[in-house]
What does this fold into?
Amino acid sequence: MESANLTENGTCLRGEEMVDARSSLLFLGTGCSSAVPNVMCLIQPYDPPCQVCSQALSIPPEHNLNYRCNTSLLIDYLNDDGEHKYILIDVGKTFREQVLRWFTRHKIPRVDSIILTHEHADAVFGLDDVRVVQPFSPTNDIEPTPIHLSQFAMERSKGDGVVDFPSGKPRNSNEFLGYQKLECTPLSEERAPFSQRAREIPRAGHSRQQNISYCLEFPANIK
It folds into this structure.
């Protein structure tokens, strides 16, 4: 796999300030819950038709900034021993398409851990397709993929038939930090259905990256 620093819509972005070329971030989606194009705009067009959704079908998705899947981020972290770890942030309704488009293009072989920032459909309804990115076993003897989320998100997800937590406990974000220098820290506690959902990803010796997948306002402590 070609190492890069940041990718947007599947295209590598590089900057002089990004010294470490071993690990990478891949933006699998930066769109809204309905994704773009919105199917309704195409099968029940307005008069005049929606220019954004119409344009989203005019050129290939990888070259089209108006073609966007549900918000999702993949961290390709390279350990000091040379081993890649793949951490997926949010698994929305368009996850299968994201795997077909970007995992195949960037040769991503699997997902090692998952972080769910919140419990909405555009963050969790692709979990059923995670089976295709788990290690292959002819006997189906596969360890469950670790999922990290807040207590609030876990309670809201129960009973939907989408998320199963045999232990009854969510994994604390700090328990997730077993990848040497990689850390992932919630920016705030989630105590209401519409609080911010964000994670801060420090890069050892370099700038910090923040992933904010859903936000109505920024609390004073993180402004």
Notes: The first strand starts at residue 6 and ends at 8.
